[in-house]
C-alpha cells in the first residue's frame, strides 16, 4: 500500500500549477472586503457560474458566507502590486484606496480597470478541508482594460506570452 500524499508533496506540486491571479471582493454592513486568490474557475456556461475557493480563516470567507455575493476581479499582468496589497500587505478599507471601484448588480466591489470582473450571487456553498467552495451565478460581467492576465506559479508572478511573441532566450512559454 502506498503512502498518502503528504502536505509538503501536495504544496510542491501545486506551486507548479500556474493560475490566474484574481481579487475576490464582497461587501456587508456598508464595508468592503477583498482578498487575492488563484483558486477560481468556470463551472458552467448555462447558467453562467464560477466558483471561488476561500480559506475559512480569511475574513472574506465570512463576509461572502453572510452576504451571499462576491465578485471575481481578474488582474492584468501589471497588477502584481495590487495583488500584494490584497494578499495582506494592507488591511481593511485601505486595500481599496489605490484604484477605482464600482458596484454592479450584487453590490460587491468591482475593479473598474480589471481585465474582466464577474459579479456573482452565491447559489451553493460546499465545505472541504480548510476551504469553502462558493458557486456563484454570474449576474453581470464587466470587461475592463485590455491586456494579459497576471499569473502566479512557483511562488512568483508571471506574464503569459502570446503565440507568435518572441520569447527571451532560454525561457519557455511562461516567462520564467
Topology:
Elements: H1 7-15, E1 19-20, E2 22-28, E3 31-37, E4 40-45, E5 48-55, H2 59-67, E6 69-74, H3 80-89, E7 101-103, E8 109-111, E9 116-128, E10 131-143, E11 150-153, E12 156-159
Antiparallel strand pairs: 1-11, 2-3, 2-6, 4-5, 5-10, 6-9, 7-8, 9-10, 11-12
Features:
176 residues; three-stranded antiparallel beta sheet; globular; disordered C terminus; 43% strand; alpha+beta; 3 helices
Explain what you see.
The chain is of the alpha+beta class and 176 residues long. 16% of the residues lie in helices and 43% in strands. It is built from three helices and twelve strands, in the order αβββββαβαββββββ. Strands 3-2-6-9-10-5-4 form a seven-stranded antiparallel sheet. Strand 2 and strand 3 form a beta hairpin. It is globular. The protein starts with 6 loop residues before the first helix and ends in a 17-residue tail after the last strand. The C terminus is likely disordered.
